[in-house]
Amino acid sequence: MGFARRDWDTQDFGQVVYQAVKEHCRTPFRQENWDRLAEGFRFVPGSFDDEQAFARLAETLDKLDAERGTGGNHAFYLAIPPKAFPVVSEQLHKSGLARPQSGRWSRVVIEKPFGHDLDSARELNRAVNAVFPEESVFRIDHYLGKETVQNILALRFANQFWDPIWNAHYVDHVQITMAEDIGLGGRAGYYDGIGAARDVIQNHLMQLLALTAMEEPVSFKPSALQAEKSRCSRQLGLPSRSTRPAAVGNTRPAGRAGKSGGSARRGRFRRGLHHRDVRRDHSGGRHPPLGRCALLSTHRKAAGPQGD
User: Fold this and answer.
1) pLDDT exceeding 70 applies to what percent of the chain?
2) Quick one: 146-298 is in which CATH superfamily?
3) How confident is the model at residue 279 (pLDDT cuts 50, 70, 90)?
4) Which entry of 142, 169, 204, 275 is annotated as an active-site residue?
5) Which of 61, 79, 163, 170 has its CA 20 to 30 A from that of 86?
C-alpha cells in the first residue's frame, strides 16, 4: 500500500516497485511470484494534511484486509521529512488506523533523520508517542541491516581468533571510513540543510563505533544490545593530545577527485555543488559540507583504559 502526494494510480505505483525489485532483488526474479505479490498493491494519493485522503486510506486498507486475509495488522513506514511526523501521526490517529484493536497491531517505522538536534528529536518523540505506544515505534538505521555490519558481532564475540585480541593490548586505534561512490544526485537541497554530521555520523557511524568498541552484552536480545551500546557511547570523549596529529594525518577532505570501480570520478560531486537547492556562501560560492572527521576516545575495556 502506497500513500503520497504524487498523482499516481495503483499501476504507476506498481511499476516503480517492480523496477526497484528487479534491480535490487538478491535472489533470481520470478515473474509468477511477482504477479501474486502485485495483486495486493494499492495506492492512495493525498497530502499529509488531507483528512479525507487518510479516510480513503483507511477504507482501502479495510477492503484489502478482507480480500487478502491479512488480519488488520499494519506497519506504517514513514519515508517522509521529519517535520511531517507529527501531522502524519495525528492523521493516522484521527482516521483510526493507529488505534490498537483486539488481536491486531499497528506499528510505525521511522528512519533518520529524526529531528535536527536533541530538543527537536524529543519533540518528535512526544508527538509520535502521543499516538503510538513506545513498543509500537521502530526507529531504524538501515546501516544495521547490511550484512557486513551484522557480521561484526559474530566476528567479535563468536570467533575464537579475534575475541581474545580485540583489546587495547593489541589494538592501537580503529579508523572507520565511510567512502561513498555516489554523488549528491537529487539530494543536494536535503544535504545542504542536514549536512554530513547529521546525515551519517550521529547515526550510521556512531552505530558502527559502538559495535566496534562495546563490551560483550549479557545476551544478544535487542534490549541487551541497546543497553551495551548506550553504555559504550556514554564513555566516549576527546582523544589525548598525543594521538590527535596521527589521526588527523590520516584524513582528507571529501567531495574531491577520487575513484569508483577503478574509474576516475570528478564531476559527480561537482554537479551536486551547482544544484539549484545548494545555498551560496557570502562569496557566492557553493560549499555544502560533503565530509566530516570525528576523533573520539573510549575508556571501555574493548579499546583499553587509555586507548583511542
Assistant:
1) 76
2) Dihydrodipicolinate Reductase; domain 2 (3.30.360.10)
3) low
4) 204
5) 61
